[in-house]
TrEMBL record:
It comes from the Bacteria. Residues 28-82 form the HTH cro/C1-type domain. SMART domains: HTH_XRE (SM00530). This is XRE family transcriptional regulator. InterPro entries: Cro/C1-type_HTH, DUF5753, Lambda_DNA-bd_dom_sf. Pfam families: DUF5753 (PF19054), HTH_31 (PF13560). Signal peptide: none annotated. The lineage of its organism: Bacteria, Bacillati, Actinomycetota, Actinomycetes, Kitasatosporales.
Length: 295
């Protein structure tokens, strides 16, 4: 039986619902492009908004089996194996990840991606990155950053943050983490001097792990490649999953997946690494500042 969509293929499923949804969206976009249709044309055929088609394709919106059926009809996918595979992915993508047990988490899409990522590169200009935070530091950060939230809401955010850290402490296939911390994040007193001392000691301990690299960008560098703020680059083991640049916002987050955008941020990160102290020098600086907090 021929593939009317031009060589569509069955799609493997994945244990992570966020990644399932993302892969399914990528496949639906590929089918649309093979058909030579624009998102606007598809939306007109299905009597839906163009934004819905875009959200389905970028994995930011849950995809129903009915959505898949309708889109496969528009794209004239005749191979039932393809349709069945996509329908199953749509069903699986509606399952919930561990983070949903904590209720509405603003950055749940990111958590899903982080949970499935093979490696993560982070630049943090203001605070110690979440995966390296102690409980006391995380509590102070969450409370300070969300002064109008209830204690219950803040406690939930802290627990989610600590649960995420299982990715770097896992015995099998831990997340490979590379962090560039601005010196400001080491010197900003969050919680108390004791909290900071314990936090920096924790960073030094984790930096000894073979899959975790920590560098410090010193004040003396001046203007640098990360001057515009925090960002993360997530990479995945499966070739079907493109890298993602994540930029956290106050009311909404930004996910960049176009190769040109990812490449630009990757180059910026290489500049940051080159401008930072090397691993040994970074550890020495963290140790000196930790000792200052002990006085």
């Amino acid at each position: 039986m021929r593939h009317a969509a031009g060589g569509a293929r069955p799609v493997a499923s994945n244990v992570n619902p966020t990644v399932r949804r993302r892969r399914l969206g990528q496949e639906l976009r590929r089918l649309r492009e093979l058909k030579g249709m624009t998102a606007e044309e598809v939306a007109e055929r299905l009597l839906v908004s163009q934004s819905k088609i875009s959200r389905l394709e970028n994995g930011r919106r849950s995809i129903s089996q009915r959505d898949v059926r309708d889109l496969c009809g528009v794209y004239e996918v005749e191979d039932q194996r393809i349709v069945d595979s996509l329908m199953q992915m749509a069903k699986d993508s509606r399952q919930q990840g561990w983070w949903h047990a904590f209720g509405d988490i603003p950055y749940s899409v990111y958590i899903g991606l982080e949970t499935d990522a093979e490696s993560l590169r982070v630049y943090e200009p203001q605070i110690i990155t979440g995966l390296l935070q102690t409980r006391a530091y995380a509590e102070a950060i969450v409370q300070g950053g969300s002064p109008e939230s209830s204690e219950q809401e803040n406690d939930k955010r802290v627990e989610v943050r600590l649960r995420r850290q299982s990715r770097i402490t896992a015995e099998k296939d831990p997340l490979r983490l590379w962090v560039v911390l601005d010196e400001a994040s080491l010197r900003r007193v969050v919680g108390s001097r004791q909290v900071m001392r314990e936090q920096l000691e924790h960073v030094m301990e984790l930096s000894q792990l073979p899959h975790i690299t920590v560098q410090v960008l010193p004040f003396e560098v001046g203007a640098h490649a990360g001057i515009n703020g925090q960002y993360s680059i997530l990479e995945f083991a499966d070739a079907a999953d493109s890298s993602v640049v994540y930029i956290e916002g106050v009311t909404s987050d930004l996910y960049l997946e176009k190769p040109h955008d990812v490449q630009k941020y990757t180059v910026m990160y290489e500049h940051l690494r080159a401008q930072s102290l090397n691993v040994d020098q970074s550890r020495q600086l963290v140790e000196r500042i930790a000792k200052d907090y002990a006085r």
